Amino acid sequence: LICYYYLIPQSRPLNHASNKFSIITYTLILSQKKKNINNQSYNSCQIPFEMEYGNSTENGIGKSNGISNGYGIGNGYVNGHGIGNEHGNGNGDVYGNGKVNGEKVKKMKPMDSEMLREQGHIMVDFIADYYKNLEDSPQDFPVLSQVQPGYLRDILPDSAPDHPEPLKELLHDVSKKIIPGLTHWQSPSYFAYYASSTSVAGFLGEMLNAGLSVVGFTWLASPAATELEVIVLDWLAKLLQLPDHFLSTGNGGGVIQGTGCEAVLVVVLAARDRIMKKVGKNSLSQLVVYASDQTHSSFRKACLIGGIHEENIRLLKTDSSTNYGMPPKSLEEAISSDLAKGFIPFFICATVGTTSSAAVDPLFPLGKIAESYGIWMHVDAAYAGNACICPEFREHIDGVENADSFNINAHKWLFANQTCSPLWVKDRYSLINALKTNPEYLEYKVKVSKREEVVNYKDWQISLSRRFRSLKLWMVLRLYGAENLRNFIRDHVNLAKHFEDCVAQDAHFEVVTTRYFSLVCFRLAPIDGDEDKCNDQNRELIATVNSTGKIFISHTALSGKFILRFAVGAPLTEEKHVTEAWQIIQKHATKFIHNKKN
């Protein structure tokens, strides 16, 4: 009887700072039956591995494969003197340098189709269980993470492992160490920032994208990646009823940026270069941009990256009289004043659905002003633009025909998963001229059989590399259909209205702004007009509510008032979650209401 001792690295060391080896003995249960192959005697054996690693069985010619629920133990080769490739240690038929008769038989194979099939099933099950548990066991998943800064460093090793570890062990660590440190954006009780909506179709699109793993920076690099993006963005533009000049059939077209921040940046650069060609390259210090004080912070960052002087960024004041939309009169006055001082106005950023309160800038009058002065107008509709596929919300982008560019974030409300930010431009050549690069190693002349030119998306964005993002948008549109998407958006808006009605029926609270979409801005009402005390009470209220882990809401400031935000957008949210959230808020507001009565 020969017992083999496998020298393998600990798959789960007790001391995480150590990467020592341990000797693990596996029992060999020898069968009574013997086989004779090539005049040599071999014992057929079964090896019961710990941690459900399955059985290793002889394979006729002495080759045994240890597979364990998709985790694997590598290849065992029997040559009469021992076992080669002794420690697959968690990666099945993929890892190891075992030898047969002194010759190397296997190296690591990073993309193995069978391993992908086995471990892919395990990963899908893990993710599906996560979503099921978010719904069925919310008490185990505090919406706002309760960990402290630096928590993860204390529970992970100081260095990477030298040898592979089983997927089962890794997913155990995800469950016990990573998930507690997550704020659960997909929780049905997440009502804080605008949602990062996900879906089965979006997930499958991401999976296919990762599996194909193409890099479509030019048409030639992956023709289907480029052409599908052109087509899908034309589809989406038509759903939004965008003007024809944003379609690929004219001088415009669409491109998927990584985020809305990138979309704003590239159009600022395009507008800057366009105006500097007219007024000269030394005019940078005179260039002026305009937006409201409610515009997303990425606008300021884009301008600074583009070399615009900070003092030349005009953020026009808004107030409740326009429901925090940009006042056209203030814009025209600012432009006239700057022209009189020798400045060069060149860019206006309008917003449909601001971050703070979902305010809507009046596009039609703003567009007319931009047109009269020859100024590039961009419309940032990252959140609310998605809702405009519904006819009843389309009016909020009336006037977009006067815009030079327009963007939405499909990962916010069209269930396309992070990240997917379609951008359309009226004149693609302005964008291309600002961003194109043509190094020799990318030069390749493509014969065009049709009248349209070849699109090279590397010249429509900051980076060279790009993912096949249009796949998931294509899958969302095809697997759900436009009408289902419209109805889901309508459901979210109705849930927000339900919450708004709850607030309006409680005299201790007040709705602060007009609700257009699925965001409700509200607060605990002031006592005797004392705004400072009211602000402090609302700060304390939101901190208390969020510390419960049962819901997560966020805040903003409008006209010096501390405002609570309740944004519906998570794909699992139903009316019962909204009702429960309101009850939690009411419960923790009791002490302030009691003090008011006293």
Automatic annotation (TrEMBL):
It holds the Pfam family Pyridoxal_deC. GO terms for biological process: amino acid metabolic process; carboxylic acid metabolic process. Its cofactor is pyridoxal 5'-phosphate. The modification N6-(pyridoxal phosphate)lysine is found at residue 412. The keyword Lyase applies. One of its GO terms (molecular function) is pyridoxal phosphate binding. Signal peptide: none annotated. Keywords: Decarboxylase, Lyase, Pyridoxal phosphate. Belongs to the group II decarboxylase family. This is Tyrosine decarboxylase.
